[in-house]
Amino acid sequence: MATVTLQYDGRSAAMKKLIELFVTLGGIVTEQKETKPKKGSIDEAIAEYRAGKTYKAKDAHDLIEQCLK
Fold first, then answer.
1. Half-sphere exposure of 48 (CA within 13 A, CB side)
2. Which of 5, 45, 52, 53 is deepest in the core (most CB within 10 A)?
């Protein structure tokens, strides 16, 4: 048995008919709700920067002191 993943517009009448045809031929359909993709680490870092949650060190010593807190 093979497994195929399809993505389509749920409002499309033609695709719904095609899925019905697939089921009548013996196929099994399993619906999966689409989930929002998680933010990547770069996107999170940019969001933190824009929100002002970043720290700008004066020099290397200041950076090390901030990291040790």
1. 11
2. 45
Rounded to whole angstroms, the maximal C-alpha distance in the chain is 71
Give per-residue pLDDT as tens, 45-68: 999 999 988 888 899 999 899 888
The single residue listed with the structure tokens 């060190």 is 57
- The span from the CA of 28 to the CA of 36, in Å, is 25
Q: In the 3-class helix/strand/coil scheme, how is 4-37 assigned residue by residue?
A: CCCCCCCCCHHHHHHHHHHHHCCCCCCCCCCCCC
Q: pTM for the full model? A: 0.43
- Are 29 and 19 contacting, i.e. CB atoms less than 8 angstroms apart? yes
